Amino acid sequence: MAIGSSTTMKELAESKVLKEKLAALPETALKMSVPELRDVSTLGGNLCNASPAADTAPVLLALEATVKAVGPRGARSIPLDSFFVGPGRTSLEASELITEVEVPIPPEGTGFAFVKAGRTYTDIAQVNVAALVRTKGGVVDYCRIALGSVAPTPIRAREAEAFLVGRKLDAASVKETAKAVLNEIKPISDSRGTAKQRRDTAELITRRALLQAGGLL
Question: Helix (H, G, I), strand (E, B), or coil: what is residue 196?
Fold first, then answer.
């Protein structure tokens, strides 16, 4: 599904089409800041700002989205997991801009959760996590986990994903998966929290996101 880069958070949150086909995005948009900012902030702006804490980044990474970049040399598609190259930095060339975000529809039966921790509900995330989980016969056959504000860029926790696939979805497996995430993050200390606080929070809310996505919470 193609979504224009100038789409506002309010439009994402209220879109009937997205709620039906790609509910993860409206759910995430509703948790971003306050209504006044959702009225004017755009999907493209949230991504191109390249903040490690951007709220839309983890969900779009988990959904394996790509961005369409257009410049004097033509158009190209950039997988989101190679779009972010550092805090405030993207792989866009100086003469390029993004026109749309292409988001694949996840497999039927996939559950989703986005969990965000911060000093206040409307604050920039201290840590945020998006999780996609599908089970067959109680066993996980599809899992995507992405986190923000725990590394120089938003990241996919691929080792943790691989750990959970093929296992029974229960409290024990989710707990071990959340611990595995800690091997893939490199948080820093800043005004919103210490590195240790971020590690502890990442483990806690990854567990919560997986339980919610799997229908266990």
Answer: helix
Q: What angle do CA 134, 23, 145 make, to 5 degrees?
A: 45
CATH 3.30.390.50 fits 111-213, yes or no: yes
Q: Which helix (H) or strand (E) holds 206?
A: helix 195-213
pTM of the model: 0.96
Which tens digits make up the pLDDT trace of 94-140? 999 999 999 999 999 999 999 999 887 678 899 999 999 999 999 99
Classify domain 2-102 by CATH architecture.
2-Layer Sandwich (3.30)
Q: How far apart are CA 62 and CA 214, in angstroms?
A: 15
Which amino acid is present at 76? R
Contact 131, 144 (CB under 8 A): yes
Query: What's the rounded Cα separation, in Å, for the pair 28 and 59?
Result: 8
